[in-house]
């Protein structure tokens, strides 16, 4: 029967009889019950079916380049892709060498990492614009794990390629410090990639939504402070071991101040000159990026100039400066991870996997939304996972999307991931021909490049006042995550940020208050009396709204807030009435005392008998658990004892199902189910009640 006919028939029946108004009834659809076995069978059948169409669809979904490459618009897109790929490749050369220093690796492995990541993501990624390669935070995490494992394996703190540790390396003969550092980084990268692929198989790409922008920004800023601190020793030319454990940032600064007397003046002067060149030129690139067709690669110019100066000035021999050293050409044969290391680095690999995936998905979704296309978070998980698994056999370390290079790709006309293949060609040329030319490049120059690229994250400190004005909760999450990542421990900062974010969400549900509503004239509009003027309350009927789910954590707060706003606490009222009855029954007073008690009782009854119905607007209540249903039962029962009816209005279907399953509706106890889909229906029903002390009817 149509809804109009149902409502009309109800109205006709209501006019023909005397009694409370009956609200408009909606006929519920009968939900078809499907057993979990049938659901499981269908899902397994869909996933495991084998047909030519299924194989083709699986191939296209798993290797996105197969889908977009045949549709490639060569004339329109090739120039932009070639230009952006070339420019990013040029920028990646000095950055790859620099970030390998942060990850405790030799420069050649940074070039390997960028090369393989560019190719694999071009084949498997769904974003058209992001650039996948080395990310400073991940390099820091990798470097911390590598340094810890080197220490546990018995290697000395300073880099010494001829020193051997007591290491049982199952992948080959006992190797030196550099060899073992590569093994640890590759094994860590392989394990992180396995985590990411497993998460893709389990379809858990949605986990990225739990890492808010404020959390990731605070984590990146805190890690940037740690990165900055770790590079100061190269600025000064000091040979200091990397500090491990909690509070490493403070301990590192203490160590730096203690060893200032051993500063290498050549490295210090070189660092200052490079900073004075790179910082202004980077700012010029940022300021005029709208006018420049491509950013000027000042980093590459500085690297070339510094390498020539170091080579002809013989800085290594004369002043003892640390240099990049021999960078071989070509590729090394693939090597299996060290399986015995996996138990030691499994937890670290998981945090690296989460951070890498979250950064990649957030950037890919941001640029996809900007340019009007869709990305698949689960496929992104596969892509970044294989960007770690496959290169790990070639001694590479962990990668993810990088914001700076992604912005460069977008601004230089990138249209597809074909630009990533062009970038790989530039890196291949360097790997095969040019790499040995960087032998004399000072490590302090690489440290300057790393620090200069932290400008974006460090600028967030200037945004704190604006963040505080916009949203204080997000700012608190940012500050706590940043402080924990920087001052305590980098990995712990991410965990603390997630926990603080979760507690903030819980805190918001627990800080919700009950609001009394008033009606706007004759319209079916009810809003907060404390927020708007001109609203009217109905005599004898109080309408309240609770703007949060009702569950185990806030059910007591819900009742307390409701009783306080109603102005009538049933428990206190019952206790007070029992006390008055006890005093009356004692009959110890005279006639004056008896009259005083009677007057008090009559005033009390007149005061509370004016309220005969309490309507609770449940539209903001998203769900109820068992504790929430029991709380509503208690509210109904408590007010029933005082002759006040409790009506629930505008409940969604989930709440209705929870009330039914929780036994809220019990005709034997007088709680019959009457569904009110508007507050006006509930108020009309309440006003039409004949008895103020009638049954406790319930409205949804």
Automatic annotation (TrEMBL):
Positions of the STAS domain: 531-686
Region (Disordered): 574-596
Keyword Isomerase annotated: no
Membrane topology of this protein: Multi-pass membrane protein
Name of the molecule in the record: STAS domain-containing protein
Superkingdom, natural source: Eukaryota
Keyword flag Transmembrane helix: yes
Keyword annotations: Membrane, Transmembrane, Transmembrane helix
Protein source organism: Onychostoma macrolepis
One of the Pfam families matching this protein, by short name: Sulfate_transp
Cited SUPFAM superfamilies: SpoIIaa-like
Family matches, as Gene3D superfamilies: STAS domain
Membrane-crossing segments per the record: 77-102, 129-146, 218-240, 292-312, 341-361, 382-404, 424-454, 475-503
A molecular-function term among this protein's GO annotations: secondary active sulfate transmembrane transporter activity
Subcellular location: Membrane
GO CC terms: membrane
PROSITE patterns: SLC26A, STAS
Classification of source organism: Eukaryota, Metazoa, Chordata, Craniata, Vertebrata
């Amino acid at each position: 029967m149509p809804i109009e006919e149902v409502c009309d028939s109800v109205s006709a029946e209501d006019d023909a009889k005397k009694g409370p108004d009956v609200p408009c009834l909606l006929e519920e659809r009968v939900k078809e019950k499907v057993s979990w076995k049938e659901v499981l069978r269908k899902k397994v059948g869909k996933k495991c079916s084998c047909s030519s169409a299924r194989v083709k669809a699986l191939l296209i979904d798993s290797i996105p380049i197969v889908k977009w490459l045949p549709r490639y618009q060569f004339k329109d897109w090739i120039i932009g892709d070639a230009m952006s790929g070339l420019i990013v490749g040029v920028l990646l050369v000095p950055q790859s060498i620099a970030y390998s220093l942060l990850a405790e690796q030799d420069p050649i492995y940074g070039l390997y990492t960028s090369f393989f990541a560019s190719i694999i993501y071009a084949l498997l990624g769904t974003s058209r614009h992001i650039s996948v390669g080395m990310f400073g935070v991940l390099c820091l995490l990798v470097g911390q794990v590598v340094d810890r494992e080197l220490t546990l394996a018995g290697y000395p703190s300073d880099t010494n390629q001829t020193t051997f540790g007591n290491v049982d390396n199952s992948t080959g003969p006992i190797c030196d410090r550099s060899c073992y550092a590569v093994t640890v980084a590759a094994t860590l990268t392989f394990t992180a990639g396995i985590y990411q692929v497993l998460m893709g198989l389990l379809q858990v790409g949605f986990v990225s939504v739990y890492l808010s922008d404020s959390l990731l920004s605070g984590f990146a800023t805190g890690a940037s402070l740690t990165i900055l601190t770790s590079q100061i020793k190269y600025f000064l030319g000091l040979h200091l071991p990397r500090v491990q454990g909690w509070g490493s940032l403070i301990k590192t600064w203490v160590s730096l101040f203690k060893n200032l007397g051993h500063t290498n003046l050549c490295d210090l002067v070189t660092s200052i000159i490079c900073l004075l060149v790179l910082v202004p030129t980077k700012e010029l690139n940022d300021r005029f990026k709208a006018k420049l067709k491509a950013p000027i690669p000042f980093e590459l110019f500085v690297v070339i100039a510094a390498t020539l100066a170091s080579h002809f000035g013989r800085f290594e021999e004369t002043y003892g400066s640390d240099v990049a050293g021999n960078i071989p050409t070509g590729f090394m044969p693939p090597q299996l991870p060290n399986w015995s290391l996996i138990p030691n680095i499994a937890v670290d690999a998981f945090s690296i996997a989460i951070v890498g995936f979250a950064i990649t998905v957030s950037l890919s979704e941001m640029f996809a939304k900007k340019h009007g296309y869709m990305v698949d978070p689960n496929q992104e998980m596969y892509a970044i996972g294989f960007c770690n698994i496959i290169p790990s056999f070639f001694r590479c370390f962990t990668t993810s999307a990088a914001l700076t290079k992604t912005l460069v790709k977008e601004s230089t006309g990138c249209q597809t991931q074909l630009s990533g293949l062009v970038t790989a060609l530039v890196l291949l040329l360097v790997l095969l021909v040019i790499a040995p030319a960087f032998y004399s490049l000072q490590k302090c120059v690489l440290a300057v490049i790393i620090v200069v690229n932290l400008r974006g994250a460090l600028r967030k400190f200037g945004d704190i006042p604006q963040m505080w004005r916009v949203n204080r909760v997000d700012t608190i999450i940012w500050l706590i995550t940043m402080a924990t990542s920087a001052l305590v421990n980098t990995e712990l900062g991410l965990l603390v940020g997630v926990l603080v974010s979760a507690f903030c969400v819980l805190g918001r549900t627990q800080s919700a208050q009950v609001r009394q509503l008033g009606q706007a004239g004759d319209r079916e509009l009810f809003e907060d009396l404390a927020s708007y003027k001109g609203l009217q309350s109905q005599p004898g009927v109080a309408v309240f709204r609770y703007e949060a789910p009702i569950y185990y954590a806030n059910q007591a707060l819900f009742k307390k807030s409701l009783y306080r706003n109603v102005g009538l606490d049933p428990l206190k009222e019952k206790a007070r009435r029992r006390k008055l009855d006890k005093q009356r029954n004692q009959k110890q007073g005279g006639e004056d005392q008896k009259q005083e008690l009677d007057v008090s009782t009559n005033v009390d009854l007149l005061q509370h008998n004016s309220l005969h119905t309490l309507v609770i607007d449940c539209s903001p209540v998203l769900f109820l658990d068992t504790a929430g249903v029991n709380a509503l039962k208690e509210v109904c029962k408590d007010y029933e004892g005082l002759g006040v009816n409790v009506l629930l209005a505008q409940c969604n279907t989930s709440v209705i199902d929870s009330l039914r399953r929780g036994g809220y509706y019990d005709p034997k106890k007088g709680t019959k189910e009457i569904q009110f889909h508007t507050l006006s229906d509930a108020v009309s029903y309440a006003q039409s009640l004949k008895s103020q002390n009638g049954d406790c009817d319930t409205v949804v």
